[in-house]
Amino acid sequence: MKQTEQKQENVIQAGNLNKKYGDFQLSIPRLEIPKGFATALIGENGAGKTTLLNILSGIRLDFQGEVSYFGDRSRKLDGSVQERIGYTGPGSYYLPHWTIRQVEEISGLLFAGFQKERFRELCEDMGISRSMTKSVKKLSDGNRMKLMLAAVLSRDTELLIMDEPASPLDPLMREQLCDRMRDYLEEGDGERSIFFSTHNIADMENVTDYCLIMEHGTIVEEGFVEDLKEEYVLVKGEASDADQTGEVLFSMSRNSYGFEGICRTRDLERLAGLDIAVEIPTLSQICVAVMKANTVNSPRKGRGSGL
Ligand SMILES: Nc1ncnc2c1ncn2[C@@H]1O[C@H](COP(=O)(O)OP(=O)(O)OP(=O)(O)O)[C@@H](O)[C@H]1O
User: Fold this and answer.
1) Does residue 50 line the site of ligand 1, with CB under 6 A?
2) How many A from CA of 243 to the centre of ligand 1?
3) Ligand 1 proximity of 20 Cβ (cutoff 6 Å)
């Protein structure tokens, strides 16, 4: 049975979300983030990922729509809900002149569940413990992200909302980030969830359970990764057959030896008669295909468009 067919609790539920900035319009009729999993938010630059995460984390309040948390439609983003949510983002979350030591002190004052010892351990593990007296503004982007991660993972939370946590991190630290995200979920025993945006799909695939693909301010595809990998296939064939694939394949690449592209599994029958090989695509290949199908100049658009 598909994961989506099982009864699913949601950690975030939202309806009729709208936010307009000039030409850009965020418009999401329904949003459900499953409880107990890591959900990735993927989309092109300017798709609206940060806008959505800012709304859900309470950074942006000037939007229309309803958001509720932790499976209770009446539970809005008040202080007790904020206490259960950890946020990391690309902006300057801490005042630039604060030192790491001050971040530790202030986190202890702001959040009841903050554990100083855990924070120090994480700073040590992430290699920033020798900079405790350094101000936030003097930290590199990567070290600033490590500081945010250390602070947020030292709290007692049930939901992490993370805007591009992998972007400023080096490959080793990205791997550590995935391990820590996985540990966070496992230690929560089904009660903890993560919602994060990323452009580093390949690096983050092993920590992604559920995926939302966003384009032009709305969600164009979503599902558990294992379900998406059944709904889409990677097709490879001879160069001489490439033109006969018609519009069935998306994000096709071709050279003199052959072609490969992604299509809906249900469309495979439209390639009958061609000498093709079929493989399971990576999440990255699926996302790129969906994003290409939804770019402004695409001949076909979005959910229900045939892709
Ligand atoms: N404060 C703001 N004022 C005006 N326009 C804004 C503001 N914040 C975002 N926008 C616009 O909203 C749109 C969505 O931006 P957003 O940052 O949410 O996209 P994104 O998917 O996170 O992009 P990226 O992947 O590049 O970080 C963009 O067109 C952006 O220019």
Assistant:
1) yes
2) 38
3) no
pLDDT at residue 189 is higher than 80: yes
Residue with tokens 């209770």: 72
145-187: pLDDT as tens digits: 999 999 999 999 999 999 999 999 999 999 999 999 999 999 9
The pLDDT of residue 75 is: 82
pLDDT (tens digit per residue) in 47-98: 999 999 999 999 999 999 999 999 888 788 888 899 999 999 987 678 999 9
* DSSP 8-state secondary structure symbol assigned to residue 36: T
ipTM value: 0.97
The beta-carbon contacts of 115-119 under 8 Å, at least 24 apart in sequence, are 115/154, 115/155, 115/156, 116/154, 118/153, 118/154, 119/150, 119/151, 119/154
Sign of torsion over alpha carbons 90, 93, 99, 100: negative
Q: Which distant-in-sequence residues (6+ apart) come within 8 Å of 133 by Cβ?
A: 99, 100, 101
User: How much distance in Å is there from the Cα of 290 to the middle of ligand 1?
Assistant: 20
The full set of domains in the chain, from first to last, is: 10-216 (3.40.50.300), 228-297 (no CATH)
Half-sphere exposure of 250 (CA within 13 A, CB side): 27
Each residue's pLDDT tens digit, 219-278: 999 999 999 999 999 999 998 888 888 788 887 888 888 999 999 999 999 998 888 999
Is 21 close to ligand 1, i.e. is its CB under 6 Å away? Answer: yes
Any atom of ligand 1 within 6 Å of the Cβ of 47: yes
What's the number of CA atoms in the CB half-sphere (13 Å) around residue 24? 15
Residue 279 beta carbon below 6 angstroms from any ligand 1 atom: no
- The best mutation among 42, 44, 49 to test binding of ligand 1, ranked by most ligand atoms within 8 Å of the C-beta, falls on 49
Q: Which atom in ligand 1 lies closest to the alpha carbon of residue 48?
A: 18
